[in-house]
Structures are given as structure tokens and as C-alpha cells.
Amino acid sequence: MRSGNTAVQVRPGVEDDLRALTDLYNHYVRETPITFDTVVFTPAERRPWLLSHLEDGPHRLMVATDADTREILGYATSSAYRAKPAYDTSVEVTVYVAPHAAGRGTGTALYEALFEALSGEDLHRAYAGIAQPNEASTRLHERFGFRHVGTYREVGRKFGRYWDVAWYEKDL
Predict the structure, then answer these.
(1) 151, exposed or middle or buried, with CB in 10 Å at 0-12, 13-18, 19+?
(2) Sign of the alpha-carbon dihedral angle for 70, 74, 135, 124
(3) Which of 171, 55, 51, 172 is nearest to 121 (CA)?
(4) Percent of the chain scored above 90 by pLDDT?
């Protein structure tokens, strides 16, 4: 797939991606309210997260790379929605795109690959929490058939203020 002027390849994430994925995530920790983590991670601290996303099953990690340079442009995951067994057929999904790769279809390519990979799994619903405001993420999720189901008001505090999180769901 082409993302802007860059050909993008999407593949499952591997352990060799850990440093680049950690650096990408840490950008969002330091600079934005998109994640409510407030302290950056080392690759060693992020390793359990990476290893919790397998190449098969309901919890996946898909990575977008520049086809020429192999630079990581973003990633998407499906993770456990909640820890209790009755939630096993639900996943929480998320996508993070490198700032210089935003707005060029990278998030779309990642979600296409993620939802294709999940299509054979025993899953009923996907959920996404979007810190507000985030119009680009809202548009991406709505394009993939997510519908707004509610908003938690002032649920997280970061950068000295409170942020709302809008929740979206999608049938799988």
C-alpha cells in the first residue's frame, strides 16, 4: 500500500521492533494526552507488552514500515479488553502513527491489516478509547465502522488538566 509518497508494508510485530516501538510510544507519552501514561518507558519495560501480542490469536501487534527504508511508521494492536474471562471475546484496539507519517493512510493500512488478521478469531466486539479532542482518530475509527457509545468526562489528568475519553465499539 502507498501512504502519501511512501510505500508502506504492514506485518506482525517482532522483538527486533521493540526499541523503535518504544521510542514511538514515548513520543505520545511525552508530548500528547493521547495516552494517559505519564512516564516514558525503557525497551525492557515495554517488552512484556510486546510479548503479549502474538502472531495468532485475538491479541495482535501489526507494524507499518517504510517499504524502502524499513523505518517503523506506526503500529496497531488488539489487546485484552478486561482481565475477566467473560470479556474474552472483546478486544481493545489502538493505533499509533509516527508524527511524520500521520495523515497519509498509515493508520488505515494498519487497521486494515489488523482487522483482516482478527477476522478468523472468536471475537464479538472491538472497543477503542479516544482521548478528546482527537478528530483524526475519531474519523479513522468511524471509517472502520466504529460507533460512539459514550464519553467518560474528565477521566484522566495529564499536563495539569483533565481529559475526556470517548468510547467507540465495532462488531467483529
Answers:
(1) middle
(2) positive
(3) 172
(4) 92
